[in-house]
Write a structure and sequence with these properties.
Elements (H helix, E strand, L loop, with lengths): L6 H9 L17 E6 L2 E9 L3 H17 L5 E10 L15 E5 L6 H7 L17 E8 L7 H14 L4 E5 L7 H4 L17 E3 L2 E5 H4 L10 H13 L10 E7 L6 H9 L4 E6 L3 H16 L4 E7 L3 E2 L6 E2 L6 H8 L4 E5 L3 H9 L3 H4 L4 H16 L15
Parallel strand pairs: 2-3, 3-4, 5-9, 5-10, 6-8, 6-9, 10-11, 11-14
Antiparallel strand pairs: 1-2, 7-8, 12-13
The protein binds adenosine-5'-triphosphate and magnesium ion.
The site of adenosine-5'-triphosphate (ATP) has 20 residues, from helix 4 and helix 11.
């Protein structure tokens, strides 16, 4: 049975832990941010200066333990976020723990301080510095425009790769609008393994992770940009995506819409095997394809191709293609940017319904014509990935 912990009791328990700097209780000291209390769980974020990370790591652990002792709390998560505040010294002591991400905000520093502490300019070429362990290839599914069906395509491709025999993971990098939990029909909560890494949720043969599995839907809306970026980094690096024995062949990232900080950071820090750009046939969407492609060019990320989603609506009786948004523009744009055209998916009620029902069409009905299209697109992507590292041998299911 699920139980909702009492919010006042949570705050009281946290107030019994002293802030090492002010001596006040954690809540009274204003250190309890973004508190989420839900069925069986509680969690919040502590944001401190970069220099104080080591000081607050035991506080985070004590807070997690205190939450777990409360009636109704089966799962507790406290995230420690370090913020490079003006004048803060470099963090002393050991490097931050697994739940700690350091965020720099050079813009807040005085010009003199910036001259001394500004990090070197971001390297334009992806450096792979944050590639997750035991993951062979990372693919981003992206679009500069919102609502074109990125998440639908990301889930469908991930299921298609799993169908083709690849060990596949799905990361929802859309912190402000996560859709993967709904599309996979799961509200499971990730557990933590002995290395303090989050264990991905398993659904439809995929390993999946989303901020939506961890905090309540509305919670991230109040997070500032750096907090959202740090959350994405944690979803990549603090998750046990694979192991030496069972590596992941492919990790598909459902990117947030646009070409903002999160997208650029991901493209810079991960050595992406490539990006798949999703578009509808409309001219306005195609302008965004060019914009999205430019972002990946900056980071020398190969564009694996363009997918035209909602390409047409098949007439329910005659099957004739009704071209609601025009047609064929994505193919032309793909040619114009020198990227392969991977294929098109029609407006399909079964596809939409399957997303809403949390039962991905490609997984539950791989023989469906729309599923077959996604499987063909996945096969084309897999072929394109064949260059460079040898393609991981697909694990064929013997039926
Ligand atoms: N080919 C399709 N046929 C029918 N419905 C679709 C199709 N593709 C997407 N949809 C529906 O359109 C809506 C938006 O899709 P989705 O959430 O995948 O877009 P998105 O690009 O990820 O959006 P956001 O930018 O908000 O992240 C959803 O309701 C989805 O079910
Ligand atoms: Mg989406």
């Amino acid at each position: 049975m699920t139980d909702i912990p009492d919010r006042a009791a949570v705050l009281q328990a946290l107030d019994r832990i002293a802030d090492p700097k002010t001596g006040k209780g954690l809540a009274a000291a204003g250190l309890v941010q973004g508190l989420v209390v839900g069925p069986d769980r509680a969690g919040f974020m502590i944001e401190v200066a970069a220099a104080d990370v080591a000081l607050y790591a035991p506080v985070r652990d004590a807070a997690e333990a205190a939450l777990r002792r409360l009636p109704g709390v089966l799962r507790a998560q406290v995230v420690l976020t370090a913020d490079g505040k003006p004048g803060s010294a470099p963090a002393a002591g050991p490097p931050p723990g697994p739940h700690t991400v350091r965020v720099r905000r050079g813009a807040r520093l005085s010009p003199e301080a910036q001259a001394q502490t500004a990090p070197p300019p971001a390297r334009p070429i992806a450096d792979g510095s944050q590639n997750p362990a035991h993951v062979r290839k990372v693919i981003a599914v992206s679009s500069a425009k919102g609502g074109v069906g990125k998440s639908t395509v990301a889930v469908s491709l991930a299921c298609a790769f799993a169908h083709l025999g690849y060990a596949t993971g799905l990361l929802d990098a859309d912190i402000y609008g996560p859709s993967i939990p709904r599309m996979l029909g799961s509200d499971a909560e990730p557990t933590t393994n002995s290395d303090r890494k989050l264990v991905p949720i398993e659904a439809f043969g995929l390993k999946a992770m989303s901020i939506g599995f961890i905090v309540d839907e509305g919670a991230p809306m109040i997070w500032r940009g750096p907090m959202a970026s740090s959350a994405v980094n944690q979803l990549i690096n603090d998750v046990a995506w694979g192991s030496a024995e069972q590596p992941l062949d492919l990790l598909i990232i459902d990117m947030p819409p646009g070409t903002g900080d999160i997208q650029l950071t991901l493209a810079q820090r991960l050595a992406l095997a490539g990006a798949v750009i999703v578009s509808t046939p409309q001219e306005i969407a195609l302008i965004d394809v060019r914009r999205g492609a430019a972002m990946f060019e900056k980071t020398a990320t190969p564009i694996l191709g363009v997918i035209e989603n909602m390409a047409y609506f098949p007439h329910p009786v005659t099957g004739e293609a009704i071209e609601i948004f025009g047609r064929g523009g994505a193919r032309a744009t793909a040619e114009a940017i020198g990227a392969p055209f991977l294929g098109e998916a029609p407006i399909d009620i079964a596809l939409r319904q399957s997303c809403d029902d949390g039962a991905p069409l490609v997984a539950v009905d791989p023989a469906h014509p729309t599923s077959q299209r996604f499987i063909a697109m996945a096969a084309r992507i897999a072929d394109a990935l064949e260059g460079g590292d040898p393609r991981p041998a697909p694990r064929l299911a013997v039926e």
